[in-house]
Amino acid sequence: MSVNPYLSIVKQLEEGGEVKVFYALISTTTVGLCVSVGYSLTQALYRMLVIMSASITKDNHLVTTSKRGHVVYNAKEERRLGVWNSGLPKRGNPHGNGSAILGMIPSLVRNIHTEVRKLDNSPKLEAHVGQKSQGEMLMWDAEGRCINAYNVLCENGVIQSAYMKIKSEPGNMTPGHDKETLDGITEGWFDKTISDLTKEKFTFKPTRRVYIPKANGKMRPLGIGSPRDKIIQEAFRAILERVLENKFSDKSHGFRPGRGCHSALAQIRYWNGIKWFVEGDIKAFFDNIDHHILEKLLRKHFNDQRFIDLYWKMVRAGYIEFGKKLSSVIGVPQGGIASPILSNLILNELDRYVELLLEENNLKLQSKTHTIRNPAYYSADYRIQGISKLERKWKTMGKTLDLNRKTERLELIKVRSRIPSTIPHPSLARFYYVRYADDWLIGVAGPSSFASELKNKISIFLRDELKLELSQEKTLITNAAKGKAHFLGTEIYRTSSVKGEIKRFKNSKGHSQRIPTTSIIMNAPISKIVSKFVGKELVTWSSSILKEDNLTPQPILKWVNLPIRDIILRYRMILNGVLNYYTFSNNKPSLILIYWILRKSLAKTLATKLKLGTARKVYLKFGIDIKYRIPETDKIIDFSRPSLLPTPKKFLGNTDFTDSLRVIDWKLRTVNFFNYVCSSCGSSEDLQVHHLKHIRTIDADLNSFDKQMAAINRKQIPLCRKCHHKVHTGEYDGMSLKNLNKIKTD
Predict the structure, then answer these.
(1) Tell me, what DSSP letter sits at residue 642?
(2) Is the dihedral of CA 543, 545, 549, 551 positive or negative?
(3) Which strand ranges, in their side-by-side order, compose the sheet holding 84-85?
(4) What is d(CA 686, CA 721) in angstroms, rounded to the nearest whole number?
(5) pLDDT single digits (tens) 542-583
(6) Quick one: how many helices (H) and strands (E) in the chain?
(7) How far apart are CA 251 and CA 272, in angstroms?
(8) How far apart are the C-alpha atoms of 69 and 171, rounded to whole Å?
(9) Is the pLDDT confidence value at 218 over 80?
(10) In this structure, are residues 649 and 253 in contact, taking their beta carbons and an 8 Å threshold?
(11) What are phi and psi of 503, to 5 degrees?
(12) Rounded Cα gap, residues 715 and 721, in angstroms
């Protein structure tokens, strides 16, 4: 059988700088090859064509080269293609001298050379042709540094994506120094901003500095930036995250995708044999970050001067305080979108340093164990064995062991049961490390001197390498058995026994067993949670002793005018927030006190709303679980007692936790108006919300309910479609809109 041109292998197209290579393998041709040259050779040829074509036509047939003529890598740091420009690209001629050498697969293709008049390497072309993601648009040099971050940031799709990410966040309707918000933003703004970025004319506006209270009573500075500047910051942050995320340490959990408080605490759960905790805190971390050190670290990952220039514009934008503009010499603003990932970049150096210490320590442990035999334990054990050996010898001679030796052996057995068989090596120890933002925790299975040495080494590293200061008053060395470390709102300590390192208990069969007291206990700080409730006026605490007799739950009077359903749901939000965060706590059953406080407060709030007088009457009306049926529906909501069985290994991964008590500070005008009836005719069908002036500006006498509405700044009124149309056409002649009908859900 003759072999015609069975294979149509390569077709090269020259279209605006793109090189596309296609291949076609026709089934009938394959059959012909099999007959002519044999199946094995046909299969080899087929594989060669597939590999060659797939390599050359990778990423939607688009061939790209790096700007400096380096090897190009993809977002996963895998080598894509051996691609070089045959000429040196310059600022005015980024395409080199007009030709490129493509697709180097030495065993298959030696020289595939195609003349290209203009090879466009812009991310815009990539996004247009292949609809690539941001990560696919990024390009890397041989050292793993991103070389086109600024070009990607200038893409319209990237800026639009940043806008979509932040547009619904409530803080972006808070004006910065320029008084602008996202309200009224137009397509023209995006075009102008991208043009300014491309021409490197874009500048960040100074932030407006305010102060918010801290838990210790001090004030924390917070920078409120221009909401429109935040769009560029978000695009900047997204590119940083794409480049840096896979280079960060596994010990870091703050402000990272897929990680959070629970992922950090989950690591601590498996620490074993901890003797000492080192609780680390960096003094005024965000305010003292050195800009030049950050630049140096950015240059390790970005070979793009324009991207570095944008970083300098952001950190040197300054801030407005008391009407005066001040420059930012050091620090990044708390509240800035890019601040968290920039803080992780600089503290990643701390993570790597501690990991280096871990590696050095593990090498020492490979040759020697971190524990040695306890002389006290084996001294007692040898004496016990000696007495038992003597008893067996005398037994063969027909003698019995005297009473003194029997008594001595019993006492020694009791002493031995309270002593561990091994003790930490005086010069070796195991230790663990975890970090969340600028808070970190180290667990040391060894002597206190080892913990002190670690603390000093880290303090020196922060001072000399990062120009940061370890807070001596907050960086504590805590005995794991006698004290408690506090990390991410959790009390962490090691189980202990009054009898020493060994704890005795009876198993399910009633037999006595010994267990080492080396496991980690993680508890919810009940007293601190109650203290927060006191601060929100949910409860009063009359004594330092934490028990129900000293606690008096209080109603939330600002919720009295809400529908019953909304009141119950808000209390459930507070309870669920606490329970979801402390799913892992060993003292989970103790959270019943939190449930009791909230249920009693809910009952008192409903008693005030319904004028029942006491919480007891609320329980009689709705039951002990406060079950409530929503009118005209079959849905029942309640405030029933949750399951509080301990689940010490239940962590919720990357869940984004927020303070559930924030619900108390919510403005009441966020109530769903569609649970109401028309304020004019009383209809419950086809409701709409009519917006009017501030109710306190209406010059009229108000009844008691209207006064409550005025006190909470009521600006919207529910109307049916018919009445709403009459209002806007001037035909409305009914009752005044400020005389609201009774809420239907009551």
Answers:
(1) P
(2) positive
(3) 84-85, 99-101, 113-115
(4) 6
(5) 888 888 889 999 999 999 989 999 999 999 999 999 999 999
(6) 22, 28
(7) 17
(8) 44
(9) no
(10) no
(11) -115, 135
(12) 18
Phi, psi (rounded to 5 degrees) for 212: -120, 150
Is the CB of residue 530 less than 8 Å from the CB of residue 551? Answer: yes
Q: Which two tokens stand for residue 494?
A: 């090691």
pLDDT tens for each residue of 474-488: 899 999 989 999 999
Q: Give 699-703 contacts, CB < 8 A, sequence gap 24+.
A: 700/736, 700/738, 702/738, 703/739
CA distance linking residue 595 with residue 588, whole number of Å: 12
Q: Which residues of 166-198 are buried (b: 16+ CB within 10 A; e: fewer)?
A: beeeeebeeebbeebebeeeeeebeeebbeebe
Give yes or no for residue 697 having a pLDDT over 60. Answer: no
Sign for the CA dihedral angle at 700, 701, 703, 705 comes to: positive
Name the token pair of 128: 């247009």
- Given pLDDT bands bounded at 50, 70 and 90, which one contains residue 182? confident
Residue 63, token pair as written in the block = 């061939």
**Contact, 64 vs 126, CB < 8 A?**
yes
Q: How far apart are the first and last CA of the chain?
A: 91
Task: Round to whole Å and give the CA distance between 423 and 429.
Answer: 11
Q: Does position 510 have pLDDT exceeding 90, yes or no?
A: no
List C-alpha distances in Å: 362 to 191, 293, 366, 414, 429. 56, 30, 6, 36, 9
Please name the residues in contact with 437: beta carbons below 8 A apart, sequence gap of 6 or more. 254, 255, 340, 343, 344, 347
For residue 116, what pLDDT is reported? Answer: 30
How far apart are alpha carbons 495 and 49 in whole angstroms? 65
Contact present, 415 and 242 (Cβ < 8 Å): no
Residue with tokens 């960040």: 204
Per mean pLDDT, which range of 98-107, 401-410, 548-557, 716-725 is the poorest? 98-107
The reported pLDDT for the residue numbered 691 is 53
pLDDT at site 677: 62
Q: Pull the structure tokens for residue 518.
A: 């080396």
SS3 308: helix
Q: How far apart are CA 87 and CA 75, in angstroms?
A: 26
The CA-based dihedral angle spanning residues 362, 364, 369, 370, taken in that order and rounded to the nearest 10 degrees: -70
Give, as one character, the DSSP assignment of residue 695.
G
Q: Read off the pLDDT band of 38 (50, 70, 90).
A: low
Axis crossing angle, helix 526-535 with helix 592-610, rounded to the nearest 10: 20
Q: Are strands 207-213 and 319-321 parallel, antiparallel or unpaired?
A: parallel
Mapped onto helix, strand or coil, the DSSP state of residue 441 is: strand
Query: Does position 408 have pLDDT exceeding 50, yes or no?
Result: yes
pLDDT at residue 532 in the model:
92
Distances, alpha carbon 580 to alpha carbons 21, 434, 577, 657, 659, in Å: 55, 22, 5, 9, 11
Give the tens place of pLDDT for each residue, 240-288.
Answer: 999 999 999 999 999 999 899 999 999 999 998 899 999 998 988 988 8
Q: How many residues are there in the chain?
A: 746
> 112 near 102, Cβ under 8 Å?
yes
